[in-house]
């Protein structure tokens, strides 16, 4: 039985009824965030070059196992050494650097609402949600397999809280929908429930082509013209170490050929799928990512690409992935530093390995998020709702993360230091030993003077006790329910909705789902 369904949780439910907190859904969308801090560099220039030299040497002398014949043909056409018998592809440094020079250092993915276009690169910070979790969980219903209702609930809550800059892809796996047509229902939900940029499923050519077709319908253009105004991303992995399977490559190639964003993320867990040392894992991660960025540029020069980093460690006692660790922090900082040297945008994650939405989940996520922001990473995936090393999406964790993300958004705002902020007249207007509560300077500003939390409880102990002694996790249950129930999707042209439904109905009939 899951912890959420134990007797102690029923006791919590009783306290929830006695101590409801007056918290309503947020309706303001986080603005585009610019990082005003200098990036934290942990590698010396010499260390950066040593890692890159080793990554290029690995690609040239050992190579990647590329399981797609079409991808191997593309590599061969651009001078790579291809061994068809072993499916190994070896890329010289000159080839990779020539392709890398074609990749844009920044770009824009266009949302249905132009005010929510996704700017990738420079000093812009973007938050995205949990992705790829097979399970969904909340305090009321416990841990269970994901379904389409949970998928839609996550979109409603994250969009209702307004805390993300793109709405993700597979925010939880809807296992109640047949696998061959599952992606169609996910894409429908993205289009119906939000006007942010969304992500195509990162495995399979069918999934990529359907994403292109539906995005074209949503944006009122042809598939061919999407490349002039890209709208989609796909976040996908390498089968580390140094293998990329055919389904992943099909998705990557179709997206790249149509000018859509490919976020390529090697899955390099130190001690498992990569060397146990940080430097060695960074060498492998960089080589794997560069091999796919090069492929994208071979297929369509200028195609938007992002170098993903997911290097962390494992628990050497059990083999389980660990996230939010000191090793993860160092890997995230180093990955972004390598990305700056290479001139490509970088994706990291705000992850944790906690089995519950508790203090451990919060401190591990806080470490990860700090590293992602202070490294100047551009896309921060899994920033809301990730739990159990990615095995679960948690509705309470979305709200806990909302507090973290909104707090960081406030921290990133420029601090004003004009005469009004210096407030010398206000200081002079209060007698020594007095207070500023009644100062005209305070009264003119108090309503919007400070950050207002969505979850934090600033009550004194007695008031908190009398309201039911409810923890932040308990309070988060109320917030996500109110947010979900109050959510109103943005407008969608009825003709677009009809065309999306017709396309999905036709494809389901063709696929047989």
UniProtKB/TrEMBL annotation:
GO molecular function per UniProt:
methyltransferase activity
> For this chain's UniProt record, which GO biological process terms are given?
methanogenesis; methylation
- Taxonomically, which superkingdom? Bacteria
- In short, the EC number is 2.1.1.-
Name of one Pfam family that matches: MTTB
Task: Give residue spans, biased composition: Basic and acidic residues.
Answer: 1-20
Gene3D superfamilies on file: Trimethylamine methyltransferase-like (3.20.20.480)
Family of this protein: Belongs to the trimethylamine methyltransferase family.
The name of this protein is Methyltransferase
Origin organism of this chain? Labrys okinawensis
Per the UniProt record, the lineage of the source organism begins with: Bacteria, Pseudomonadati, Pseudomonadota, Alphaproteobacteria, Hyphomicrobiales
């Amino acid at each position: 039985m899951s912890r959420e369904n134990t007797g102690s949780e029923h006791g919590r439910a009783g306290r929830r009824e006695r101590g409801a907190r007056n918290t309503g859904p947020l309706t303001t969308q986080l603005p585009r965030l610019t990082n005003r801090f200098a990036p934290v560099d942990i590698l010396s220039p010499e260390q950066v070059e040593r890692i890159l030299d080793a990554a290029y040497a690995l690609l040239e002398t050992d190579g990647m196992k590329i399981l797609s014949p079409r991808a191997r043909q593309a590599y061969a056409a651009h001078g790579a050494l291809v061994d068809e018998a072993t499916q190994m592809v070896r890329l010289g440094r000159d080839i990779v650097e020539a392709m890398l020079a074609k990749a844009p250092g920044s770009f824009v993915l266009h949302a249905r609402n132009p005010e929510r276009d996704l700017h990738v690169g420079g000093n812009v910070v973007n938050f995205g949600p949990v992705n790829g979790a097979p399970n969904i969980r909340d305090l009321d219903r416990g841990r269970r397999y994901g379904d389409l209702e949970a998928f839609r609930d996550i979109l409603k809550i994250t969009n209702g809280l307004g805390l993300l800059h793109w709405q993700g892809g597979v925010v939880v796996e809807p296992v109640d929908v047949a696998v061959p047509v599952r992606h169609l229902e996910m894409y429908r939900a993205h289009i119906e429930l939000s006007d942010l940029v969304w992500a195509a499923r990162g495995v399979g050519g069918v999934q990529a082509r359907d994403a292109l077709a539906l995005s074209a319908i949503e944006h009122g253009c042809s598939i061919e013209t999407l490349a002039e105004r890209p709208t989609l991303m796909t976040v996908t992995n390498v089968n580390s170490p140094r293998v990329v399977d055919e389904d992943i490559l099909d998705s990557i190639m179709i997206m790249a050929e149509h000018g859509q964003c490919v976020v390529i993320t090697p899955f390099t867990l130190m001690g498992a799928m990569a060397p146990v040392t940080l430097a060695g894992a960074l060498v492998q991660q960089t080589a794997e990512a560069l091999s796919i960025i090069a492929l994208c540029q071979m297929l369509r020069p200028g195609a938007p690409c992002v170098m993903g980093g997911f290097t962390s460690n494992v628990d050497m006692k059990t083999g389980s992935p660990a996230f939010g660790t000191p090793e993860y922090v160092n890997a995230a900082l180093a990955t972004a530093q390598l990305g700056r040297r290479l001139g490509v945008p970088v994706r990291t994650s705000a992850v944790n390995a906690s089995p519950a939405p508790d203090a451990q989940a919060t401190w591990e996520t806080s470490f990860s998020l700090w590293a992602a922001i202070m490294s100047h990473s551009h896309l921060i995936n899994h920033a809301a709702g990730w739990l159990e090393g990615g095995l679960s999406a948690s509705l309470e964790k979305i709200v806990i993360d909302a507090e973290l993300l909104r707090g960081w958004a406030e921290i990133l705002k420029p601090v004003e230091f004009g005469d009004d902020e210096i407030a010398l007249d206000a200081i002079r207007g209060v007698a020594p030993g007095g207070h500023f509560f009644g100062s005209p300077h305070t009264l003119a500003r108090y309503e919007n003077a400070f950050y207002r939390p969505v979850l934090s409880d600033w009550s004194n102990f007695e008031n908190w006790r009398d309201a039911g002694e409810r923890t932040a996790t308990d309070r988060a249950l109320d917030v996500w329910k109110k947010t979900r129930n109050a959510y109103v999707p943005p407008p969608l042209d009825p003709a677009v909705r009809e065309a999306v439904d017709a396309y999905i109905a036709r494809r389901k009939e063709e696929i047989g789902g």
